[in-house]
Amino acid sequence: MADRQTRTPTQVDKTPAEELLDALGPVDRYHDYEYFGDFGMPARAMMEDLVVGATHPGRFGPLDKVHAFWFAGASCDGCSVAVTGGTTPSLESMLLGAHPGIPKVVLHHPVLNMEAGAHYLRPAEQAVLGELDAPYVVILEGSIMDEVAAWRAGGYWSAQGEEPWGPEGELRPVSATEWIARLAPNAAAMMAIGTCATWGGIPAAEGNPTGAMSLMDFLGKDYRSVLGVPVVNVPGCPPIGDNFNETVAAILYFLQGFGPLPEFDELGRPAWLFGETVHRRCVRGAYYEEGAFAQEFGDPECLVEIGCWGPVVNCNITSRGMINHVGGCMNAGGACIGCTMPGFPDKFTPFYKRPPGSLASTTVSRMVGSVIRPLRKFSNNNLNREVRWDRQHATPSAFSRKRPGRRHWPTSVTSSTTRCAARATPRATTLTSGASATRPPAAAAPTPASDPDRSPRRCVSKPSRSSSTRTAPPHCAAASPTRTT
Amino acid sequence: MTIAKPDVALNEVERREGIERLVARNGHIKDLNMDPVTRIAGALAVHVTADLEKGVYLDSHAQATLFRGYEVILMGRDPRDAIFVSSRACGVCGGVHAHAAAYAIESAMGICPPPLGTVVRNMTEAAEMGYDNPLHLYLLAGPDYCEAVIKASNPELWPKAESWPCPNADIHGFKTMAELMTALNPLTGNLYREGLEFTRLSREMVVLLTGKYPHPENVVPGGVSTTLTLQTLNEFHSRLGKIFDYAQRMLAVWDDIPAFFYEADDRYQLVGYLPTNHIDPGYWDDPYAYDATYENCNSWGEKRWSTPGVVIGGELVTTRLTDINIGWEEFVEHSYYDASHTSRYETDPLGNPLSPYHSWNKRTLPKPGARDWKDKYTWACAPRWDRQVVEAGCYSRLLMTAKAQKMPASDFMSATGSSMRLLIPKGETGEREVEWHAPERWNAFERNRGRAYHYLFSQLVALESLLEAYKLMKQGEKRVAALNPTELEKAIPMDERRSVGWWGAGRGWLTHHLVMDKGKITNYQICTPSTINASPRDPWGQPGPYEQAVMNTPIIEDVSDPSKFTSIDMLRGIRSFDPCMPCTTHAYTGDGEVVREVNTCSCGGD
Questions:
Q1: pLDDT per residue as tens digits for the range B279-320
Q2: Are strands A136-141 and A65-72 parallel, antiparallel or unpaired?
Q3: Does A433 contact B at CB distance below 8 Å?
Q4: Do B152 and A45 touch (CB under 8 A)?
Q5: Range with the lowest mean pLDDT among A44-48, B74-78, B93-97, B220-224?
């Protein structure tokens, strides 16, 4: 069944959206709302009614009000969840009009709205009829599935609502795909959120039975909204909630004459968010520069050799974080699997394997790094000493001295900082107290007991770790080259 | 009070014919269509026949209206891909599928995560419950009890709410129920806004460890890839510390709401009522007991923070994971799939007999088709344990753990056999001990209350796990994964293996059954809690949990004017399960007779 669309060898004349509408035929019957009464709750307490007191007319722009229809295709609702986590601006602040320059946004979202059933979909019906009281944008989460194939089998893949659109006016389930096809021609903008809607994503992976595809592919490469805008894509699986919220806000600011024209790249991505590879602002990028690579899961260095695709992936998560600037894949130790990219997932699998193209570049950076690292270490050690300490040949603090008969606390802690202090200590003590420690006490104390295999490699054969002390506290500085020479 | 029970002695044909006769006798039939029911995640439909004069629902069918084919996509892939691919099955509570897949892979490949790896997983998964539970209680279910909805659908309750003093006013600060209900109003209410903020705080805790939510980036076969530093743990700790004061207020709110409704009308005890039949595979492993083997699963399973188990008719019948596994069957008589059972495996790896309908023997063969109540009407299949209808929920964890009394020793949690005693550590307010009692009658209010107590339970697990992580760090433990990527690649077995990952989700039960051969996945079966709860009739005509719960729900709202019928009682019942699905409802009403469907989407359709 999936063959019908995903393996079509040549481009057909019609877009898949046109093909679906041809198969389903035009619609002219709509629900009789008198019939429903309050059924589906609460006709007298629609989401729009509930927030009306909290929104005030703004001084900017031509728009008083915009409708936003949120539809879910083959989705996991992860994009919705990500959007509710966004804070710049937050969903609730946008809906309550908390920002100058943002018009009243009437969101129709199945996970958030008060009203249910026919009352929930009435504005969508009005939009199809061309009778809605304000311009509308359509947001799709999840991929578009081949509903033509399911329709021919007498069923559907994913339905949202029933409409009297059967051949004799009987009710039939209406797929999210059909709503999208009917709403797209008159939309002010069509937005795809998340990698499923932007590029097909996991539901469109090889072997899928549903013929899943992206919104862009569904509407065709010539699609333009009534404002002349092609499909706007905010990818990511999940997307960063703030990437989406900010894009919506930026578009609205522009339309209201409040902000600049937001730029989009040739794939419809917000250019200011996706213009760079995620590696360029990666917190581990400098390890790459110094040729220091993680070999074990959990290692602090660059993750390229354990399966990270960051150098060739457009994303901003390492600089923006996932929520409130917290998190980010590589920030926490997760290798980039390319989830923002059109090639995801099939061009990135199997996961946890180094990208084939990285072999040459990591070899080069290892060679360069082997020169840079010791030079930087030399300067770093020097800069970690006050001029006064140099003059007095002093040890900066008790942290750098091992007191006889007493195990001071840092030896029981194994952060990289402590390892550094431990390595630094013996040489300093040699000079200041005459003790002849030959082995770093921190490495000697806890590690061999718990992890005999790894401790030597961690402490000896990976000198790059010392570069994690870029902002080393004073106690790391005891082994200054000026002191030891 | 008598409990209406679906008469399963009637077969489907007899039931439908009876209803059609009733509908016909009542003359004019009005067609109503409630599609979707909002404030749930995904796609499900429940078809219902209601008698407004008698105030009962005569019939109900649950339909999952979404299929995406993740299990099919996984066929033939490298088993390592299962973690990141299956994670995308659900984006609501997030990393649960990634973890379940990791457990399945590890069991198949014989890799045991090091203790710190398991501890980080426990911290992650406890923090996920920390955003899933308040998201449901305040954004999805809470509005059903808010001022706007009460005034629109239960106006008779509002005067009482205005004069009803909240017993827990000193904890949550709302003097009357009316004040509390106003705070539940969407977007503008303080409880709604505070709930949303606390979900964000917990999401921050998650991404400290996973990098990303809802789909984590740190889960690897054999552990995690989190770079754990003292700062990671301290940041986690500083956020967790804020949660305990909030948990006190949350419990106070969700203890007062049932008290108010039960007092207002006894029949609220029956909204969403189901007999006490629960199942749960346990959650959050003991880092020292877990060894990734099926052979020892009964021993390490019982050491989980949340004990695995099955409760039938209120009695705990087992806490053994093997019993849970071999009793499991999934039927597709009423689902859009071709007959999918095989007799490939007659026993489990220990020699216990397996049904042809067991997940290891089941295939996913999707076949979209027309809806027919007598035949196929949903994308969900019908999972049953020992051929009995069971319910799954995060609150089931409290029930199992309380009844089994096998939970690990803790300063903060203990099980009494019929209740859980939980000690809320001090925050800005002082330390306080609370107790959750297994309810006599599981209904919408008890599910929501249970979810609030589960929030506290999960956060105490987060605290215990954090303390364990600190302890391991003090011991110098750094390993978070058993193998590095090179070793992992070499460890992929070429012979045939099968395994199961038993885990949990925001709604309870989660299992991934895996079969692999020649280094590739040859069968993958995901069973989610919403599949269990949204299940259709089974071959014996037993309705699934949503279907039964709707049939047990009395129509309490005032329907003397049929046009004012909102169906809020049924919606409260359905939403209390926290369906992981977007929804739809279709209805046909006549004078006093209503036939309708609620469509919701479902991750149950995977």
A1: 999 999 999 999 999 999 999 999 999 999 999 999 999 999
A2: parallel
A3: no
A4: yes
A5: A44-48
* Residues A135-146, mean pLDDT to the nearest whole number: 94
Per 3-state DSSP, what percentage of chain A is helix, strand, and coil (rounded to 5)? 45, 10, 45
Q: Give the three-class secondary structure for B481.
A: strand
Cβ atoms of A208 and A250 closer than 8 Å: no
Q: Note whether B152 contacts A42, CB cutoff 8 Å.
A: yes
Burial class (CB in 10 A: 0-12, 13-18, 19+), B375: exposed
Contacts of residue B37, defined as CB under 8 A and 6 or more positions apart, other chains included, come to A40, A116, A117, B571, B574, B583, B584, B585, B598, B599, B600
Beta bridge partners of B81: none
Distance from CA of A210 to the nearest CA of B (A): 7
Instruction: Name the closest residue on chain B to residue A2, using Cα atoms.
Output: B69
What's the rounded mean pLDDT across residues A344-355? 89
SS3 B583: strand
User: In this complex, do B485 and A307 lie within 8 Å of one another by their Cβ atoms?
Assistant: yes
Q: Which of B241, B273, B264 is nearest to B155 (CA)?
A: B264
Give mean pLDDT, residues B356-377. 82
B122, B472 contact by CB (below 8 A): no
Average pLDDT over residues B261-272: 95
pLDDT digits (tens, 9 = 90+) for B479-512: 999 999 999 999 999 999 999 999 999 999 999 9
Give all strands (DSSP E) within B356-429, no chain letters: 382-385, 413-415, 419-424
* Amino acid, res. B9: A
Distance CA B356, CA B332 (A): 12
pLDDT in tens, A155-198: 778 888 888 888 888 888 888 999 999 999 999 999 999 999 99
Domains of chain A by start residue, with CATH: 3-274 (3.40.50.700), 276-383 (4.10.480.10), 396-484 (no CATH)
d(CA B338, CA B341): 9
pLDDT at B11: 64
Q: Examine the pLDDT at A414 and tell me if it is beyond 50.
A: no
Confidence (pLDDT) at A424:
38
Give the A window 220-259 contacts with B, CB below 8 Å. Answer: 237-238
What percentage of chain B's residues is helix, strand, coil (to nearest 5)? 40, 20, 40
- Residue from A145, A249, A160 nearest A197 by CA: A145
Residues 201-260 of B with CB under 8 A from A: 203-204, 206-218, 220-230, 232, 235
State pLDDT tens for residues A394-409.
Answer: 877 878 765 555 454 4
pLDDT tens string A264-282:
999 999 999 999 999 999 9
For tokens 């892979």, what's the residue?
B105
Residue B495 tokens, joined: 């012979």
Helices first, then strands: H and E counts in chain B: 19, 18
Give the CA distances from residue B583 to residues A40, B283, B603, in Å, rounded to whole numbers and listed in that order.
11, 28, 12
* Confidence band for A48, pLDDT divided at 50, 70 and 90: confident
- Residue B507: name the closest of B216, B227, B93 by CA: B93
Q: Taking CA atoms, what residue in B is nearest to A164?
A: B33
Q: How far apart are CA B13 and CA B24, in angstroms?
A: 16
Where are any strands of DSSP class E within A142-220?
Answer: 159-163, 172-175, 189-193
Contacts of B239 in chain A (CB under 8 A): none
DSSP B332: -
Residues of chain B with Cβ-Cβ distance to A201 below 8 Å are 88
Q: Is the pLDDT of residue A415 over 70?
A: no
Mutate to test the interface with A, among B118, B121, B203, B574 (most CBs of A within 10 A): B203
